Batch of 4 targets.
Target 1
Amino acid sequence: MIEDITVREGSLEAPTRHPVEWKTEEFWDKDSLNEELERVYDICHGCRRCVSLCDSFPTLFDLVD
């Protein structure tokens, strides 16, 4: 997981692309993947700001709920 990421909501700056460390053991670990997916889904489930932009959200929310 990447540490020390500053989030500036509504910023006009281009997003920073962080390297994906696909050669590490953690990248291929299923438990680590599930933990990260749950973290991201929890953020999406709580925010719902971009629901109207993506057709996958109803399915995601049905699975989370």
Target 2
Amino acid sequence: MSSAPWTARSPFAASGSLSSRRISSVDGRCPELRPARRANRTWRPSPNRRLATAPRDYFGRDDTRIGSVVGYCARDGRPVLAVVTAPALRRRIPVLTHDGAVDAVELKSVEFAAPRGMGSAIDDDPGVDPIPQSAEPAPGGASDASRRLAAVHAYATRLTHEDEGSSATDEDESPLAERAWRRALAAGCVPDEHPSSTAVSSAAAPMDVASLAAHVFHGDEEPALCESSVSAATEANVGVDLVRCYAAHVLVSGEPGRFRRHGKGRFSARTAHEVESFAADAASQAAADSEREAAWARVGEAINAPPGSKPPPSHFLDGTVTQLRVEALEAYALGDGNRTSAQRAAAIDFLSRFGAKIGERSAMDTLVALGRWRGYEELSFARRDVPTAFPSDALAHAAAIEAEAPPDLDCQIRKDLTRLRCYAIDGEGTVEVDDAVSAEALPGGKIRVWVHVADATRWVGLGTPLEAEAESRGASGYHPRGVLPMFPLPVAARLMSLTPGEPKCAVSVTAVIDERGATEEYWVGTSTIRVTRAATEGEVIKMLAEEPGRHEGLELLVEAARRRRELRLKRGAVDVRMPEATARVFDVGEGEGFV
């Protein structure tokens, strides 16, 4: 039977599935339905392939089989000797430690693995009993494996402590780690110096733990040590190689200045030049640590000092790291938005070091105890980064102005208004008198009102340090303990201030008020005035009540204010009276207050 001729529909009729349709559409019988081939197709290796195929430089499953003795560091840094009790699961091996605990350690955390095939693993030595792989306690209370591991660990720890206590300078009586390092150099494990007499780093292959133990427990030079290791192995009922390998590992692990650590429990001896450089770095670090601890002790003494013996606020602004710590604590106390993450971490470390609670309130209390802040501290200026002190160039500029007055650029156009009776009305305790008022009667019942403001441009030119500082401040700031002037007080309180009885430069504004309270004309310009009297609001009210007709200027100002108020009320203004509060803070220590 002959087959039917092929048509474009026959492949789709053979199957109803979408996958078969795709396969049938590119089967070579229909070239027009083939997918387009990708042009210029090149193979590029994955950037992660190198990382995925790189050899891991730590012990694997073959090195940590059941019954293998391994060593690692606990979270607190102490060395732990253990035996593997089960196969690794997800790169974590179950172990029984020398103190009888059951743990699971990651493969990459294993720093020591007793090599097999040389009697160093407990179950490899034919002369000793194999280690039990369970943690069941023996009649004595602890498992037999834990007791045997504990004996090995105790010997290694005792040997390391005895070596750390040795400080003899004689080569024959030098510490054991130093003697082992010298033997490693003499054996040619590492070149001491380059042939060109230039010290170089070691390029030799690292030593495994067996080779390292051979240098530590040298039969000819360390007979007493070898004998003690045999006794320890007999007491622990383990192979002597395990005792020596683990003791050498623990000993050399505490000597980073002489031996460089590598993966899989290997070490290489450093060159003499490297040892000297490492010792110099260690001495420098020790000196820095001692200096840091002395600085912390100084901070602790200030915190524990009685209230009357606190150091001045600038005591810790000494340019050292202590200043950075105190500034970080201040930034933390100011709250979010005023500190960086580094300052927050430094402040938390500061508080934790002295046992204080972690919080902004605790930081403020610590600054008060330190003497940096007082019991009440105005934080609004600090939170807005308002400068509380003038920079040195601004202070130098102010001193130069006091010593020699700059030329008056407006002397040709400055109007002489010293004929007017000017009154400076300010609050009690005002240091900077920066404004004054006056008035004079005109024909037709009109009143000319004058407002005079101290002319700062007479003393401070554009582009000078004082002008830049004044621009950044904008105005004088007032807080319960005093004032933050826009200019240094010697300039603001003496040169610029409208001191009574002295001719002072000012910027004057005048306006004519008619009988209806409307303004007819105005003028603004530089002037020279002389303040007749400086008074508070209470004193002005008393002067008008007790001395009528004597202060014509004040009475004209009151009349002008009345006219303006009536005009505003006729135009629909609403007079809302709000209570005013005046606070006066007294400083117990200084006996002074500020409104």
Target 3
Amino acid sequence: MANDDRRKLLDNALAQIEREYGKGSIMRFGEFNAAQGVETISSGSISLDLALGIGGFPKGRIIEIFGPESSGKTTLALHIMAEAQKAGGVAAMIDAEHAMDPKYAKAIGVNLDELLISQPDTGEQALDICETLEARLMSQAMRKLTAAISKSRTCVVFINQIREKIGVMFGSPETTPGGRALKFYCSVRVDVRRISSIKEGADNTGNRVRARVVKNKLAPPFREAEFDLMFGHGISYEGDLVDLGVEHKVVEKSGAWFSYNGERMGQGRENAKLFLRDHPEVAREIHDRIVAIVNPPEPARDAPAELSAAAAEEPAENGKGRAKAKS
């Protein structure tokens, strides 16, 4: 009886909290976990999706992409928006720098007709806000944002630059503006760096980019991914397939030739990329095989103890029947 009374009191308390703060404001973790799941949005790069450990950027969380100028931060964010739209979601961009290039966004795959964009004019007074006040405001804003983001299953991506701290004698002087609040509230932080140029003859056609997951609350951090970022086109999906295919022995490389299932894809990496662009069904097959190798399906769980005990007793009871079947 005491347990029943305690449960009734608890249920009444939960009902009162839900009446005051809305349905779902408090629930048992079993219900919460079943409803939650980890939904993701692809980054547009297979190698980065795999490095993130959950197949993309998580919904309902805050993400930070940071790095030096011209490293590919905005391109990566545009790819995330394009992938969200492809999955039936809504994408919005707050462009504080007024640097949005609609032609480039369209080339990457962003549906401009459905994209929501805001280009706020902060005014000269923003220059007078000191670093400490900005950090405090950011901390207050993060506390309010986090709850709304989690409930609405929205993936919020902050693009941040790198600055250098003055007077640092040891360690890296690099830091990101916004104080510690953004670092604290982020579930995933990705450091994006340009590592080399991609050339076609004497012309630069793109950059080779390295993305390092420096913080990850949903999978092991410090994984890295490298991919091609082609000027005017964005992340090269086919380049990712070629690199990962060779790494996981799905695609064979002999000298300068690339082949798949005995069929030659082309001489040189660029020709192999062109082959995959012209044969999307082959690209999809390679993609599925890579994902199956990197993220194999989970093995079946062991049967509960009572089932195992019942199975152990079964031969004793049905011994005669089994002996007949064998004979």
Target 4
Amino acid sequence: MRSFTGIVSVSKRFFFLRGKTERRPKIFSYEVFRMSIALKRKERKIQIGEFWTSRQRQSHSIHYSVSYRASFKPELPAFFLDRYLSKNKGTVLDPFGGRGTTSIQANLEGHFAIHNDISPMSLFLAKSRQTIPSLDSMERILDRLDLKKKLEKKKKTRIYSLFIIRIL
């Protein structure tokens, strides 16, 4: 972000800011400046006053069913979805999907989500958490399993180290 040394001159409709390295002052609309200051105050108020309320920390338990590296809490996408998307159904693109926190939160709030990640594991995690199976379907799957069948014990292969490991 460019830093300015100060306001050079002010007119009724425009004001001029001079940067540290610039000779010519930048011309800004006074209305745009007032609106940007008001937005900054509003954003500061929302971030300090409303972001960490107990209501916003409550999230769906499906988010915590899988642990995944470099993941973030579902409150973060929930905050931005509530703030920047309308209540109508919108589309959310998550280009680095990870465990699917953003796409799942978007679906929980009624939006369409596009999940993208290079890892096939990421796609599997997000897809498996999108559809929660019903109790009837879980019973049918468990009934198909033969729980009385004994598993064969496989002979373990031993790997011998060529080097002696020493602890310093």
